[in-house]
Write a structure and sequence with these properties.
Blueprint: H1 4-10, E1 16-17, H2 26-36, E2 46-50, H3 54-63, H4 68-72, E3 75-82, H5 84-92, H6 101-125, E4 129-133, H7 140-146, E5 153-162, E6 164-166, H8 176-179, H9 190-200, H10 209-217, H11 222-236, H12 245-251, H13 261-270, E7 275-279, E8 282-286, E9 291-295, H14 298-310
Antiparallel strand pairs: 1-6, 2-3, 3-5, 4-5, 7-8, 8-9
Helix pairs in contact: 2-6, 3-7, 12-14, 13-14
The chain binds flavin mononucleotide.
Flavin mononucleotide (FMN) is lined by residues 12-13, 15, 65, 67, 131-135, 157, 171.
Length: 316
Amino acid sequence: MRDLFELYQHRASVRKFKPEPLREGDLEKLLFAAQRAPTDATAQMYTILRITDRSLRQEIARLANNDEHVQTAAEFFLILADVHRLQRLVEHRGGRWGHWPRTAAHFSTVDAVLAGSALATMAESLGYGICWIGGVLNGIQEISELCRLPEGVFPVAGLCVGVPEVIPAPRPRLPRELVVHENTYREPEPAELDRAFEAMRPITRSGDWYKVLERYFTSGGTMEEREGRYQRLVARHGFDPDLPAEGLKRLEPHGIHAGSLGELIERALAEGYRSVLFRRGVVWLEREAEAFRGEGKPGEAIIRAFLDAMSPKEPR
Ligand SMILES: Cc1cc2nc3c(=O)[nH]c(=O)nc-3n(C[C@H](O)[C@H](O)[C@H](O)COP(=O)(O)O)c2cc1C
């Protein structure tokens, strides 16, 4: 067991693993640590999916980044945000599940990260290497289907754990004063931003950290690419405040996949509806000589109007 201060001085994500399993008894320690993590309101809104099926792991690796380390690590876990089990527990005792989708997404993500992080730190303290895999968001829909994730559950990230083959040098971090503020939020000065790029320079091969930020976070970058898929998956799994998951699933056979109310409105207008009319408790999708109606709250109603538009009609 390594001292925690010393561990954090030297820790780095590991991407080259030896083809060796964890030592006897260590998996139990990792899972024990994960379960000892703090959790909001005692609820434990996460699930750790241990992927033991080699072909499933291979498929997840392909759908994520094609990262070699996803395949070669001794263990690969999918860290899931999960309010499904909590809903089962509540309903098991006759409770009526509340409507708090954004808060559910928030606290289930927090719980999942805390549990995964405890697992990861325990692994590192036992001398293993770890690497988080946000790349699972690239194939979030397919991975969720392969792993049969129900409503109320979505992947937060993957986590590789294994015996390190190569331990990289620790990567730099931003200057402390940029990430720790006192009492009120402090905007960084332009000169501090320059110093940030300077501090992070060694993290890249090109010598320019901006190249990394550009690839991920600018217009047309990786994050923007992930956004639509992520929104659609979390909405379909019940985490969008406006869109009922059941309704979204009923639209899918008609080729309509939406992750927000805005996306459904845009879709309607792109499909040639002249207008989308919202009135209290009702939505109309209007075409030249026709109008299709749906009742309910705005999200529910527009889904119903779409379903009305697409259902086979008697000649009028
Ligand atoms: C949420 C999250 C997602 C990540 N996704 C990936 C990934 O998909 N592939 C990968 O090789 N590393 C991934 N990483 C590892 C980061 O690249 C790494 O933590 C960062 O570069 C800092 O390096 P260090 O952990 O060695 O200090 C991820 C880390 C986090 C926290």
